[in-house]
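Here's what a typical entry looks like (Spore protein YkvP/CgeB glycosyl transferase-like domain-containing protein):
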Amino acid sequence: MSSRRKALGYIAIGVALLQLGMITVYLNMPNASDEGYAIDLTATEYQYFTPSPSPATASDSVPILAPPPPKPNKEEIDKKKKKKKPLHSQYDLDEAKEECFRQQPSPCFFDFKWRPIPQVLIQERKRNPKTNQWLPVKRPYSNHTRKLQLLYHCHYGHYTTSMDRFFYDEIDAAVTHPGINVSFYGPGFPGWDKSISTSDNINTHFQNMHFDIIYSMDHWQSQFPSTAVAVSTIGDCHTPHDCQKSIQSYDDVVALRYAGEIIDLFRPEQWEETTELKMEEAWQNNNIHEFDYLQNREMPLFVHNPDCAPEDVFYPSKLNETQKWHHPRIYPAQLFGSTWGELYPLRDKMRNGINKKILFNATEFSHPGYNIFVNFTKPKYPVGQYRPKDSNTAHLRAQQSMYAKAMRETQICMFDSSRVRKAIRKYHEAFLSGCVVAADIPLEMEDIFRDVTIPLRFDMGIEEINDILQEYLADKERLAWMAREAFYRARQHWTCRNKVDRLIESAARLLNGDKGYWFPFGFSAGCRDYPWGNNTMWCQ
Ligand SMILES: *[C@@H]1O[C@H](CO)[C@@H](O)[C@H](O)[C@H]1NC(C)=O
Ligand SMILES: *[C@@H]1O[C@H](CO)[C@@H](O)[C@H](O)[C@H]1NC(C)=O
Ligand SMILES: *[C@@H]1O[C@H](CO)[C@@H](O)[C@H](O)[C@H]1NC(C)=O
Ligand SMILES: *[C@@H]1O[C@H](CO)[C@@H](O)[C@H](O)[C@H]1NC(C)=O
Ligand SMILES: *[C@@H]1O[C@H](CO)[C@@H](O)[C@H](O)[C@H]1NC(C)=O
Ligand SMILES: *[C@@H]1O[C@H](CO)[C@@H](O)[C@H](O)[C@H]1NC(C)=O
């Protein structure tokens, strides 16, 4: 027993040492660079998957018949223990978090890092000829490695004018993945021909290219080359019926940015109803292809793929030894976002409170509008590729930096999750910026908000909100703790690398035969086979 305990002790020490090593490595990195995240995924085998050689097959240089080393007696062990530095010194996780928080912008040892590309995504695969659904990929897998070919599909007009960079922040992360080759194209891009189909446009522009995944944010009833897994994303479902109908007819995976929308709007019977409506529409439009497709298809895989924010844009200010969390935060509290009362009743209330000076120590950060237009220049790089520093989107990045700077300079960021209680990006952005959020708690990912958000409710009066605000503002140490903890969680779960990883994972799940719903932050509903009753619809 005691030797086993000893062995466990050594393992614990080893782990502690490893972790200490990691901290030093990451803390010493001078500034944020993509290099910090890169691991070689194109190698045939990842180092961490390599099994250690078993004693019997170990290399010849190991003398197998050598006598076992003499067991050290207890005295010797005690001597050694005294000589060495105390190894048990567990590093303090809180200290390490604090340290990294103070060193921004730079990588932290707890940041989400790329995971290997699932092999299933680059294997031969086929669709069920009747339903068009992907069939589960059969093993054994062939032994080859190549980059994953990923096409981000959007409208050029959205790309160049939309203030909200949610789609493009994700692409910024995707292009840093060493195992992915990103392409970027869609309607309105130079060379796009409106008179031919989406599929023909893509095939003409990218000749001899087969995409593994096409990820799209626009809702046209258009079919992508059917050799790709078609994933589309939707977010703002304020008019349920329209949103239900906006599902593309040919999607394999539907990724919703907010979990609640899945269970409110896309339950099986609702999906069937929508499909019937779309079939009717296709029939009326004389679109027999779409009609047949819809008639035979099964339900796509629904996935909760929450938002992300870029941590090289949203980060806390660097602090020197004497500075405290609140020192660079010159605004005690700021209200962020649109204050349109129909959709954001709490923000509207807070804005009125600020104007009437009932809510004090708070200001409003002015909303720039949803679209920002400038005159464009012809892109100087090959159309179809993505350039993170495209000069045609510089005006949008400038706006985003200004907004990020405001969050960096604010102690408490006030907003709400809208009437539909969704985890909009302001939560991600504020968490990464070290700004403590005062808002209602969205109806999703609740664990991530726990203890690190100042919880408000829609029914609260403005005086009550002000009392809460003043109470928190008076306790800087508590605020600093909340900010650091929220930052720590966001860097683990809410970076845009996380979001790219979930996109890849959802396609991999589909090709592994998953059906139904996937909630990466909580719950999945799929084939549940009740022994004495009807099973759920995904068991076939
Ligand atoms: C895969 O291919 C590599 C290089 O061709 C080879 O070294 C390796 O043994 C192969 N692995 C398997 C499982 O076949
Ligand atoms: C990456 O994609 C582009 C098209 O966007 C293609 O021309 C290029 O050959 C691809 N590179 C690799 C390594 O697959
Ligand atoms: C820390 O930063 C503050 C604000 O920039 C500055 O006033 C102070 O002198 C700095 N202290 C040290 C020790 O560098
Ligand atoms: C907060 O507001 C009160 C009342 O207006 C004022 O006395 C105080 O100086 C303000 N504090 C800060 C940090 O602005
Ligand atoms: C775009 O160019 C036109 C014509 O040169 C000019 O009148 C307009 O002010 C420009 N708009 C912006 C936003 O720069
Ligand atoms: C199973 O489903 C069918 C069709 O909806 C229904 O008629 C039947 O009563 C169900 N059986 C049980 C045991 O619930």
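The radius of gyration is 27 Å.

More examples are in the samples folder.
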